Amino acid sequence: MAEDVGIVKDVGKWEWSELWKKEDWWAVWLGFFLLIAGIMVYFPHTGEMQAKLQKVEAQYSEQAQRTDKLKTIAWYQLSDAKKKVQALKSSTGKWLKKFTGKPHKWTNNPFDAFFKSKEKADAQKEKAIVKYEKKHAVEKEAFEKAQAAEKAAEAAGFSDDSLNADARAAITGWRDAKLAAGKAKKKTTAKGYNQIGYLIGLGIFFAFFFGIGVAGMGQSLGKFLTGFIFVFLITLLAWLAANQATMKLYGIGYAAWAILFGMLISNTVGTPEWAKPAVQTEYYIKTGLVLLGAKILFEKIIVIGTAGIFVAWVVTPTVWFLTYWFGQKIVKMPSKRLNATICSDMSVCGVSAAIATASACKAKKEELTLAVGLSLVFTSIMMIVMPMIIKATFPVDKQLILGGAWMGGTIDATGAVAAAGAFLGEKALYVAATIKMIQNVLIGVIAFFVALYFTTKVEAAETGVKVGPMEIWYRFPKFVIGFIAASIIFSLFYSYFNAQIGGLGTTMVDKGVIKGMSDLYRGWFFSLSFVSIGLATNFRELKEHFKGGKPLILYFFGQSFNLCLTLVVAYIMFYVVFPELTATI
Question: For residue 466, what are the β-bridge partners?
């Protein structure tokens, strides 16, 4: 091996056939197929949506523009009215939501997740109406207080900082009451349903949707289709468990159940040989990550300003590098690949970043499983504990923005971030979700640099052979190109629509193609991937990597440092460097 030292080799060779023979490229093609389908479904409604927004503007805009010192009630009413104008509410959008629907929430009878009679729905609706009326009464009282406070501030020409602060606090209280009432109101519209037929149709569609790529990669389509039935049924079981009322309350989501059920099978009776062709962890989630890219809209990132960007893009790489150093020098992790995967999982955005990094550095499947497992455990704890800590210890005037930024920068999963933010209030939800969206941009960046580092440094040291540019390109996870391309394309669409009329970008892109197509399928693809992780994992293989508890020590150190640094930087950015931005959120 020594004779090869210093020799540069391009082990990987590019061939055009990779475009239809490689998993990464199929993830890109399938992801963009759905995104293009979303464009074809929703963009023809542009004129109709634009007319509705113009009508809303005419109703609220004059009052909403009264002052730049305070976001008035009319400003929020205008914003709320615009948000209700959604392309996904078209007839096709409503059908897509039904077709891709997960099992419903249930309490005692699991069959309620799939079927509910009209009579039972009506009975539940009556109870929901009673609860909503109570929430609505609170909202009405809060609204009256907000009106009184705003009138006092307006009487002073919005020049009295104390009156403005009182009005701002009263309006925030109304917004939080409105958020709670809105959640209660949704339950008053419950209808009977029969999800069984849709789920069967969805399973068949997914089987052939992914099966096309499997056949293109030269694998047996028949064997994949047979095995997919098994994988899809376990996925349904995971969603069923996650949507049980108590599990949903405590945030034990589908990802944890999917991995748990898969691991129980693989470590007891064993994953059936006939099912293994459909155990395609990376294929499913890479397609989902391409769809996630469309959700990263640059104009929405800029709205929260330099403060949020600094929190996400400076803290995250700092935490990554320090944690990696800690793992190598202090903990002495035996596997650099496991070390890197845990660092990305903990510092960027959980499972998505872990899989991108594992692909870039060629980590073993059990190393990826271990990193994902740690993330899911800590995420479940943090999404419940962090809002409680913020409520108990943060000053009231800093709970929403500082608390939201703290959670957005540290809780791994996007869904968990939104749930934790909503616990504090509407403003915290907005800040937390935006910070997490900014952080998600780093999935592709981290994957690129990890691929570069492991190809040129780690593997060169392991083999004694230096590699050239083509091998770096060969090893780079190509689905990241789809992720970045989707982000750029849909950011341009978003800006183009908003240039025509404010809010049209949200209506057509965010509340159209993204929520009405991309998000509907992405959750399913991720759950298929988590089931595959479980089915491909053996406890005996995991045991080897858990020796001495080093992965747990590494994750605990990294997340502790992440929590401290994110809180400090968020405070400095939002309250010291950019206080004027904070006042306008």
Answer: 8
Structure tokens at 495: 């800006």
pLDDT value at residue 465: 66
Task: Kindly report the backbone phi and psi dihedral angles of residue 530, in degrees, each rounded to the nearest multiple of 5, phi listed first.
Answer: -65, -40
Q: Are 352 and 285 in contact (CB under 8 A)?
A: yes
Tell me the C-alpha distance between 225 and 214, whole Å.
10
220 by DSSP, 3-state: which?
coil
Q: Which of 403, 446, 426 is nearest to 563 (CA)?
A: 403
Per-residue pLDDT, averaged over 100-110, amounts to 91
Burial (0-12, 13-18, 19+ Cβ within 10 Å), 72? buried
Distance between alpha carbon 520 and the CA centroid of its chain, in Å?
12
Tell me the average pLDDT of the chain.
87
pTM (two decimals): 0.85
Written as one string, the DSSP assignment of 368-407 is HHHHHHHHHHHHHHHHHHHHHHHHHHS-GGGTTHHHHHHH
Q: What is the pLDDT of residue 471?
A: 67
- When pLDDT is cut at 50, 70 and 90, the band that residue 4 belongs to is very low
Instruction: Tokens for 492, please give them.
Output: 């341009």
Looking at 71-218, which runs of residues are DSSP E strands?
Answer: 115-116, 193-194
Closest-CA residue to 284 (of 17, 22, 26) = 26
CA distance 294 to 214: 24
Q: Angle, nearest 10°, between helix axes 281-293 and 442-453?
A: 130
Q: Does residue 422 come out as left (phi exceeding 0), alpha (psi in the -120 to 50 range) or beta?
A: alpha
Q: Can you tell me whether residue 244 is helix, strand or coil? A: strand
Q: Three-state SS string across 555-573, please?
A: HHHHHHHHHHHHHHHHHHH
Mutual angle of helices 550-571 and 305-325, in 10-degree steps: 150
Can you point out the beta strands (E) in 28-125?
A: 115-116
Burial of 499: CB neighbours in 10 Å, binned 0-12, 13-18, 19+: exposed
First to last CA, the chain: 60
State the Cα–Cα distance between residues 289 and 521, nearest whole angstrom: 11
Q: Which two structure tokens, joined as six digits, stand for 21? A: 């023979």
Torsion over CA: 313, 314, 320, 323 (sign): negative
Q: Any residues with CB less than 8 A from the CB of 270 and at least 6 apart, and which?
A: none
CB 503 within 8 A of CB 85: yes
Q: Which amino acid is present at 405?
A: A
Measured CA angle at 101 (ends 98, 105), to 5 deg:
120
Whether the pLDDT of residue 535 is over 80: the answer is yes
C-alpha span between 539 and 268 (Å, rounded): 10
What is residue 544's predicted lDDT score, i.e. its pLDDT?
A: 66
Domain spans, the chain: 118-191, 201-584
With beta carbons less than 8 A apart as the criterion, state whether 49 and 504 touch: yes
CA distance 456 to 141: 64
Q: Which residues contact 200 (CB under 8 A, 6 or more apart)?
A: none
Tell me the two tokens of residue 317. Answer: 């790489």
For 283-311, the DSSP string reads HHHHHHHHHHHTT--HHHHHHTHHHHHHH
Tell me if 491 sits within 8 A of 301, measured CB to CB.
no
Q: Please, how many CA atoms are within 13 Å of residue 89, restricted to the half-sphere of its CB?
A: 8
Largest Cα separation within the chain, whole Å, is: 84
Structural contact between residues 483 and 443, judged by C-beta atoms closer than 8 angstroms:
yes
